[in-house]
Amino acid sequence: MGEHIRAGTLDIWTEQVGHGPDVLLIGGGGDTVESWQFQLDGLADRYRMTAFDNRGAGRTTMPDGPVTAEMMADDAAAVLDALGIPSAHVAGFSGGSIIAQELALRRPDLVRSLVLQSTWPVMDPYLRSWLLFVRWLVEVAPTERAFLEGFFLDIYTARAHNDRTVAAFIDGVLAFPYKQSAGDLQRYLDAFLDHDTTDRLPQISAPTLVLAGGSDPTARPELGRAVADAIPGARFEVMAGESHQPFQEVPDRWNACVDAFWREVEADLDSPPRSLATASAL
């Protein structure tokens, strides 16, 4: 069960499960702890998984004033500090991946590694226009269901729409008691419209895996590739046939991918320096 923890100036709804190396999960627009359910269930046998509701989403309130990616990165840092976690593998998707970038830039001490799903360095005109469309759609859609049905056309694959996976997701969102207001979603989206980490990404030193859905019409693979090319040593993988949120559509495949990456990072961090290893072998 989750609980509110005092993190900075906010009471942030946080859930923590499992045992092992620490992982922090950062959601995208309007998404809450529940968006990571397949990871909380599927990886808790190997990691201590922490997820939280961003400001203005779910059970975390939206303070007055503007919202920025930097501000939300500080929220994420405050969660780790409040829980006494010295460093964690950090995974974020969509807007959450931008928050994760900022966390790695602002508090590198807290970031053991980065997984950036459906990410970008700066919105190109296409992605920016799409985000402005979503900002408009949430205001004018005749019902919440109509908004979700339209919005999710660009988030999930045709496969997930046709096999009723998306319909089940929508039913879950509609039944969720802690609804995000249209205004709070718009303020969240505004934080990313002109946000640009292009020139600062080379400063990220954490081992990084960038994942893109090969069929994602929004955060397209070329945008993820630009992030990976800018971060020293970053790995880039395209999940063919997948869209914006493969961690929900093909969670077993996604979990296996990030688990292999985290295991590799842990092995590298636990290995003694090469000179010492060579000396001991002699």
Features:
282 residues; alpha/beta; Rossmann fold; eight-stranded mixed beta sheet; AB_hydrolase_1; triacylglycerol lipase activity; Pimeloyl-ACP methyl ester carboxylesterase; AB_hydrolase
General description of the model:
- With 282 residues, this protein is α/β, with parallel strands linked by helices.
- It has one domain: 3-Layer(aba) Sandwich (Rossmann fold).
- The chain is 45% helix and 17% strand.
- It has 12 helices and 8 strands.
- The chain has an 8-stranded mixed sheet, with helices on both faces.
- Strand 1 and strand 2 (10-17) form a beta hairpin.
- The chain is globular, with a radius of gyration of 18 Å.
- InterPro entries: AB_hydrolase, AB_hydrolase_1, AB_hydrolase_fold.
- It holds the Pfam family Abhydrolase_1.
- Residues 23-246 form the AB hydrolase-1 domain.
- This is Pimeloyl-ACP methyl ester carboxylesterase.
What's the structural blueprint in terms of helices and strands?
Elements: E1 3-7, E2 10-17, E3 22-26, H1 37-42, E4 48-52, H2 69-82, E5 88-93, H3 95-106, E6 111-117, H4 125-140, H5 144-151, H6 158-162, H7 165-175, H8 182-193, E7 208-213, H9 221-230, E8 235-239, H10 246-249, H11 251-270, H12 274-281
Parallel strand pairs: 3-4, 3-5, 5-6, 6-7, 7-8
Antiparallel strand pairs: 1-2, 2-4
